[in-house]
Write a structure and sequence with these properties.
Blueprint: E1 4-10, E2 24-28, H1 35-43, E3 47-51, E4 58-66, E5 69-75, H2 87-99, E6 103-109, H3 113-125, E7 130-135, H4 137-142, E8 145-147, H5 149-156, E9 159-162, H6 171-181, E10 188-194, H7 200-210, H8 219-227, H9 231-240, H10 242-257, H11 263-282, E11 283-285, H12 293-302, H13 304-355, H14 359-365, H15 371-400, H16 402-415, H17 424-430, H18 434-440, H19 447-460, H20 464-474, H21 478-502, H22 522-557, H23 559-573, H24 580-589, H25 591-603, H26 609-621, H27 626-636, H28 638-666
Parallel strand pairs: 2-5, 2-6, 6-7, 7-9
Antiparallel strand pairs: 1-10, 3-4, 4-5, 8-11
Helix pairs in contact: 3-11, 5-11, 7-8, 7-10, 9-10, 13-15, 13-20, 15-20, 15-22, 17-18, 18-27, 19-21, 19-27, 19-28, 20-25, 20-26, 21-26, 23-24, 24-25, 25-26, 26-28, 27-28
């Protein structure tokens, strides 16, 4: 029997109800195929990003006017199959099941059509109205491939559009096709159905007949998910039609006995074979293109021999020179000395003294811990320039396509500590903001990975402002920077390895689609930088002001002085002056706040040499800030978050103590 056959179905008129004003367009596809670019092109700036109900996965929703119709557009999380493995895939399928899409835009990477048609076939099998988008078509042509889209339309029974979303090519045609597709149709259309061979087809048909309710997808699609032992679908059927569930399970068990391999493997293999057969019939290989410069660069990025030197190049010029030297030294120094030192602080002091008669109230705004002279100064002159430059670098690297290649490069190393290469994304983002990065750990597939990543972010990943200040403090002393980096990397690897042994769960698996290497568009990079900075500054600015208020109240009540006194004991135990305890207390409000405190101590000459190195290492490993602690509680639960904090606090000082003593024993003077 052939792998594929034709099946006719009636296309429903979903717009006959006059109360239905906003048809829904869903964008689905694997990660890194350009879904978000197409979403942004259709919706513009009218976008809402929020967690899908009952999950931690963010879903983007927007509106688009195409022709005379207003649409709701939903950018679903990346998925490789309707049989969900990750939380993202589960959410994408829940959206399909519950929200009844009117048009489905299935986005695929044109040059990887063979692999990606397996999902397309599942969506067709689910009896959804689909427009297939062959995105990044320019990259396919560069690879020497041409796709006969008309022939592909005939094969699949759906419309096919070629696009290059980043340049806008094909987007007008896509809008025309959406307008055409949304018009009421009552004609019979033909679509493709994968044939799984006997006896599996018999069991699929039997299950279809037993399923009595409508679940948003076709009964055939639900039957196949049941055969694949999809836990959520089994739970859904058991709740919806318990009277049939026992019979369904009996059929599934009979089917499993007939095959020597798991049914999910058998079904997935048939789909891949069907997808490959279709792709091979519609792909026209023109003259085989020689490897382009971008191909050579891509290969160099994922080859360990060349990949790690490229990584060090990116870290040195992108993080150290651009963020550390330009941001944390030159720009911060200018803002600190010229703007705040000579203009803002003197003016604020003069105004506050003249307006407010009471010294205790004056200290709320000016002085060592005032809202203006400390909170706003830290936020604007120290933190803002450093974080802005980091997000610019991150957006630039993101748009080049480097980050997925970095994930592939680091996968083997990360597997040793219980993570997959996919964890590179939240880890890298942690160098911008650990709070934001902790939220991004939702994209990791297993709970074990999410716990390990959260632990390492809380312990050993300095945020951009903290990193920039550390580089500024240790600049001019490469030995100090080398010892600091070596210590943090060793802690990262050792604690990651030990955590992977303590936390139970399945070992991580990893596969990723590589987007093309591109020269980023400055406008896109600037927009991403601005968007992230807006989010970051809205979050951080009030916290800096709140921290000044809390410190002021704490001083009045004596609580702040008590906390500083208690912290002075472990601080002096690791060889630092008691005054450094203030910086560590600041670090609990925000890591970058504490780093800025170290910057002040360094500038005043209280910290230098070995004590400066020990202080930067200990503060890097110190407790997560309040914002990150709250996010840890939200993401991992209060018990796990508190357990992490209770481990990190003494561990940071233990490492500082050991480092201080090792430096003294070795006679090393920084």
């Amino acid at each position: 029997m052939t792998l594929i056959s034709r099946v006719s179905h009636l296309t429903k008129n979903k717009f006959s109800d006059s109360n239905y004003d906003h048809p829904k367009i869903f964008i689905v596809g694997s990660p890194n195929v350009g879904k978000s670019v197409i979403f942004n092109s259709l919706t513009g700036s009218y976008v809402i990003v929020s967690n899908y109900p009952g999950t931690t996965v963010e879903v983007s929703r927007g509106t688009a006017r195409i022709g005379d119709i207003q649409y709701e557009v939903i950018d679903t999380p990346g998925m490789y199959s309707l049989a969900s493995i990750s939380e993202e895939e589960s959410v994408a399928r829940k959206i399909l099941l519950k929200e009844n899409p009117d048009i489905l835009l299935n986005v695929v990477d044109s040059k990887n059509l063979q692999k990606m048609l397996a999902l397309t076939l599942q969506l067709i099998e689910a009896n959804l109205r689909i427009i297939l988008i062959l995105n990044m078509y320019d990259e396919a042509e560069k690879a020497g491939l041409k796709i006969d889209s008309k022939f592909l339309e005939d094969k699949l029974g759906i419309r096919v559009i070629k696009t290059v979303a980043v340049t806008g090519q094909g987007m007008d045609k896509l809008r025309e096709e959406i307008s055409s597709s949304v018009k009421p149709k009552n004609n019979v259309t033909e679509s493709l159905r994968v044939q799984y061979g006997e006896p599996l087809e018999f069991f699929v048909k039997t299950l279809e007949e037993l399923i009595s309710k409508n679940y948003g997808l076709s009964k055939r699609s639900i039957a196949l998910l049941l055969l694949q032992r999809d836990a959520e679908i089994h739970e859904l059927i058991q709740e919806s039609e318990p009277e049939n569930y026992t019979k369904l399970c009996e059929v599934i068990e009979k089917a499993e006995v007939r095959y020597s391999y798991p049914l999910n493997y058998v079904i997935a293999l048939r789909r891949r074979q069907a997808g490959a057969k279709i792709a091979n019939s519609v792909i026209i290989s023109s003259k085989l293109a020689k490897p382009s410069l971008s191909d050579k660069i891509s290969n160099a990025m994922i080859n360990p021999i060349t990949g790690f030197p490229i990584l060090f190049f990116v870290l040195y010029f992108g993080i150290y020179q651009f963020v550390g030297v330009l941001g944390a030294q030159l720009i911060v120094e200018f803002l600190e000395e010229e703007i705040f030192g000579k203009i803002v602080n003197p003016l604020a002091t003069s105004l506050v003294v003249n307006i407010i008669p009471f010294k205790i109230l004056q200290e709320l705004f000016i002085g060592d811990y005032g809202i203006i002279t400390l909170g706003i100064r830290y936020a604007v002159s120290i933190i803002l320039p450093i974080v802005t430059l980091f997000f610019f670098v991150f957006a630039f690297l993101e748009d080049t396509g480097y980050l997925p290649r970095l994930a592939l490069l680091m996968d083997r190393v990360f597997k040793k500590i219980g993570l997959s290469g996919r964890a590179v994304i939240p880890m890298t983002l942690g160098f911008g903001c650990d709070t934001m990065a902790t939220i991004v750990t939702r994209t990791l597939e297993t709970n074990k990975e999410r716990i390990i990543a959260t632990m390492l972010l809380a312990l050993a990943i300095p945020c951009s402002a903290q990193l920039g200040v550390i580089f500024a403090i240790l600049s001019g002393n490469p030995i100090a920077i080398l010892i600091w980096a070596t210590t943090i990397i060793l802690v990262f690897l050792i604690i990651g390895f030990l955590t992977s042994k303590v936390v139970t769960g399945e070992p991580p698996s990893f596969f990723i689609e590589l987007p093309p290497i591109r020269i980023p568009k400055l406008k896109n990079v600037l927009v991403k930088t601005y968007t992230r900075m807006e989010w970051y500054f809205i979050e951080v600015f009030p916290i800096f002001i709140l921290a000044s208020v809390v410190i002021w109240i704490g001083q009045i009540l004596g609580v702040f002085d008590l906390a500083v006194m208690l912290l002075s004991y472990p601080v002096q135990w690791i060889g630092l002056p008691a005054e450094a305890s203030v910086a560590f207390l600041f670090g609990f409000f925000r890591r970058d706040y504490g780093a800025a405190g170290l910057f002040d101590l360094h500038s005043s000459g209280l910290l230098s040499g070995n004590s400066m190195l020990v202080a930067t290492v200990t503060l890097t490993l110190f407790l997560p800030c309040i914002a990150q602690l709250f996010i840890n509680i939200k993401e991992r639960g209060i018990k796990t978050a508190i357990a992490m904090a209770l481990f990190i606090f003494p561990f940071a000082f233990l490492v500082g103590f050991l480092l201080n003593n090792l430096l003294n024993l070795a006679g090393i003077l920084i």
